[in-house]
Design goal:
Number of helices: 3
Strand order of the largest sheet: 1-7-6-5-4-3-2
Radius of gyration: 16 Å
Shape: globular
């Protein structure tokens, strides 16, 4: 059996129609669809440097520790899940102002370079496929 290498890096980027402060605060809210907290069956979120998080989804536990939090600019935390095979990986999220919106970039590094590790790319794309939709204004109804 070949041992997995832990060199896979997943990068997902989205442009979001809201200022960085709003996007940053929303990413750390369980009330906002598209966040991992919102999708969790159970969760613990202590969003401070050194604070722990835990979320359970379909009996799969994910947990880690926040290592950097700079409002509207950066979130960094460790990440352990069944798909990391018990090894600690790193998630870094940056928020950059672009016009009236934000470019949000999520980089997940130190993943096992196998199918389980690559599953994180599908997972992050799933969440970041939903999250930006929370900031799109509802279309106005046409009046006659």
């Amino acid at each position: 059996m070949k041992e997995p290498t832990y060199d896979l890096v997943v990068t997902v980027q989205r442009e979001i129609a809201a200022p960085p402060e709003t996007v940053y605060d929303s990413w750390l809210s369980a009330e906002v669809p598209g966040t991992v907290w919102n999708a969790a069956d159970e969760y613990v979120l202590d969003a401070k440097v050194g604070g722990l998080f835990y979320w359970l989804l379909d009996e799969n536990a994910h947990y880690g520790r926040f290592t950097a939090l700079t409002r509207a600019k950066r979130i960094e935390h460790t990440w352990v899940s069944p798909s990391t095979l018990g090894e600690e990986s790193k998630v870094s999220i940056t928020f950059k102002k672009k016009g009236a919106g934000t470019v949000m970039t999520l980089v997940h590094s130190g993943l096992p370079n196998n199918e389980r590790g690559k599953g994180h790319e599908r997972g992050w794309n799933y969440f970041l496929g939903i999250f930006p939709g929370q900031f799109v204004a509802a279309p106005r109804k046409r009046t006659k």
